[in-house]
Amino acid sequence: MPTRKKPTRYRGWVMQSLKPLLPRGWDLIPYSRTPESIEKTTVLVGLQNITRLPEAPMSSHVTEYVVTVVSPASDLAQADADLDDDIADLLHAIDNARDDKGFPVLAWTRAERRVYGDFNLAFDITVSVITTSTPTKE
């Protein structure tokens, strides 16, 4: 089995924030690589884009990731039945997740249904985080 590259600190933070929100038994993969087969509901995390934060254009960025949730069911009707409530529950969990200071952990803007690969139902959820550079001490 090939070794997995360690997630970057931002992607790692997104994954660490998502993990407790996912239903038990879902597989969380740090990159949007195509698994050889989907044996259980699989969540892939891929960097989508980075833009400047308008309120702080020189020091902060909005970093968006696509969180893809893929059903293992090859029958689309079964996959719909499997994911309908789980996607809604995951979005509510993201809405309600707070850090120790009460601030939202992640923000999501869109969840879009699509077909993953040739026949697996999936949802792409766009989540965003604000990143700020930290000067290094010399």
Summarize the SSE layout with pairings.
Blueprint: H1 9-18, E1 27-29, E2 42-52, E3 60-70, H2 76-96, E4 107-116, E5 120-132
Parallel strand pairs: 1-2
Antiparallel strand pairs: 2-3, 3-5, 4-5
Under CATH at level 1, the class stands as: Alpha Beta
Main pleated-sheet profile: 5 strands, mixed
* Order of SSEs: HEEEHEE
Number of helices: 2
When the domains are counted, the total is 1
What is the number of strand segments?
Answer: 5
With strands numbered from the N-terminus, the spatial order across the biggest sheet is 1-2-3-5-4
* Secondary-structure content class: alpha+beta
Mean pLDDT: 86
Q: Proportion of β residues?
A: 25-35%
Question: Which residues sit in consecutive blocks of at least 5 with pLDDT less than 50?
Answer: none
Shape: elongated
**Percentage of helical residues?**
10-25%
Distance between the termini: 40 Å
CATH-defined fold name: Alpha-Beta Plaits
CATH architecture: 2-Layer Sandwich
Rg to the nearest angstrom? Answer: 16 Å
Describe the structure.
There is one protein chain. The termini are far apart. The longest helix is centred in the middle third of the chain and has 21 residues, at 76-96. It is elongated and about 50 Å long. It is 22% helix and 35% strand. With 138 residues, the chain is α+β, with helices and mostly antiparallel strands. It has a five-stranded mixed sheet. The protein contains two helices and five strands. It has a single domain (20-131), classed as 2-Layer Sandwich (Alpha-Beta Plaits). A hairpin with a 3-residue loop joins strand 4 and strand 5.
